[in-house]
Amino acid sequence: MQDQLDIGFRIPGTPERVNCANYFISKFKEINSNFTYALHNFTIHSIDCQNVLFKLNEDNSNIVILGAHYDSRAKATKDPIIINRNNPVPGGNDGASGCAVLIELARILYSERVNLSCQIWFLFFDAEDQGKDNAYGIDEWDWCEGSQQFGLDIKNFYDSDTEDFDCMILLDMVGGENLQFINEQYSTSSLLDEIFIIGRQLGYTNQFQSNPESASIIDDHRAFVSAKIPSADLIINFWDNPGWPYHHTTEDDLSHISNTSLEITGKTVEQFIYNNYIDDPNNLYRGNYPWSQDINVPNIDVIIIVIILFTILGIAVLMHNTTKKISEKESDMPKN
Ligand SMILES: [Zn+2]
Q1: How far is the CA of 251 from the centre of ligand 1 (A)?
Q2: What is the distance in A from the centroid of ligand 1 to the CA of 212?
Q3: What's the gap in Å between 256 CA and the centre of ligand 1?
Q4: What is the Å distance from ligand 1's center to 56 Cα?
Q5: Cα 73 to ligand 1 centre (Å)
Q6: How far is the CA of 76 from the centre of ligand 1 (A)?
Q7: How far is the centre of ligand 1, averaged over its atoms, from the C-alpha of 235 (Å)?
Q8: What is the C-alpha separation between 265 and 211, in angstroms, rounded?
Q9: With CB atoms 3.0 to 4.6 Å apart as the test, which of 143, 163, 170, 281 could cross-link to 158 if both were Cys?
Q10: pLDDT score for 335
């Protein structure tokens, strides 16, 4: 993490953003000089952006994507000191933390690669964090531009005849003090539930609570949910969290990062991979695999309205039939 922050602010379109992408390449080359990677170039309002993808175990046809964004926010739009709001966010937790865990996971999973029955993608997104909050951001930019672009171009990065995706796990703000993940609502629930269960089994009961707060977050996993890939977002409450109040402020730096939080996140995702993909006939535990997509349960209000409408309709039909019978009877009466 220190390395990423030492590079400077990784804002889209800056040399620091390029240096950070090169830094990831050098880290993966350290693991193995032949580590396969692909660069995904795209432009947002004529600014050059780049997602960086590394692939492990390409011989396996079923792919697990582990993702994080690496851009840092251009403006600290939520800084309590108003004059700071034009300054950039260091992006310690919001950016660098997820990337740091991905690099560490790559190192560990590489050493286990021959035992794993899946292909793993380590995917670093550019241009996640430049949307508008408090009405400020880069003009015209949306959140999650990098993952949206990747979702559009995903077919260029795998062979859809021979390969398919099992799931996607996103790490966003996983390194702050007082780590407590939420039940993110766009996520595929059976996948997110399984990760929470694994976290608790490892003893991380505070971080993966049995009754966590729920919220829907616009984040990089949504492009993959839309592509029908079961996906989970590991993220915290960043909008009202006295335990970590530094979101989009100039204080999102290393001083509010906890190595324990990074380790807990990494170990939980690592265990998830082992539970599901250790190629061992004695390993019968597959959790909730294949994490089928959530079926959208209709809203309770809609159900009540439908019940009321059917009741009204039922009464109307009944009344109509009764009046019909009465009038038929009347017409049967002998006429004078
Ligand atoms: Zn952010």
Answers
A1: 13
A2: 21
A3: 15
A4: 28
A5: 6
A6: 9
A7: 11
A8: 18
A9: 163
A10: 45
Q: Which residues contact 258 (CB under 8 A, 6 or more apart)?
A: 175, 176, 177, 178, 179
E strand residue ranges, the chain: 36-44, 47-56, 62-69, 119-125, 164-171, 183-184, 214-215, 231-234
Summarised one tens digit per residue, pLDDT across range 210-257 is 999 999 999 999 999 999 999 999 999 999 999 999 999 999 999 999
Q: Ligand 1 mean position to 2 CA, how many Å?
A: 18
Q: What is the pLDDT of residue 17?
A: 98
Tell me the pLDDT tens digit for each residue of 282-313.
666 678 889 987 765 555 555 666 666 767 77
Q: Are 119 and 42 in contact (CB under 8 A)?
A: no
pLDDT, position 135? 64
Cβ neighbour number for residue 59 with a 10 Å cutoff:
6
What's the whole-model pTM score? 0.87
Inter-CA distances, 66 with 12, 53, 54, 203, 268, Å: 21, 10, 10, 22, 13
The CA distance from 236 to 265, in Å, is: 12
The rounded Å distance from CA 50 to ligand 1 centre is 18
Which residue positions in the chain have pLDDT lower than 50?
329-336
Tell me how far the alpha carbon of residue 316 lies from the centroid of ligand 1, in angstroms: 55
Q: Give 89 Cα–ligand 1 centroid separation in angstroms.
A: 9
3-state SS string for 78-94: CCCCHHHHHCCCCCHHH
Q: Distances from the Cα of 279 to the Cαs of 24, 104, 304, in angstroms? A: 28, 21, 48
Encoded tokens for 175? 């390194």
For ligand 1, the distance from its centroid to the CA atom of residue 124, given in whole angstroms, is: 15
Q: What integer pLDDT is reported at residue 303 of this predicted model?
A: 60
Asked if residue 235 lies in contact with residue 192, where contact means CB atoms within 8 angstroms, the answer is no
CA of 247 to the centre of ligand 1 (A): 7
pLDDT of 280: 73
C-beta separation of 74 from 130 below 8 A: yes
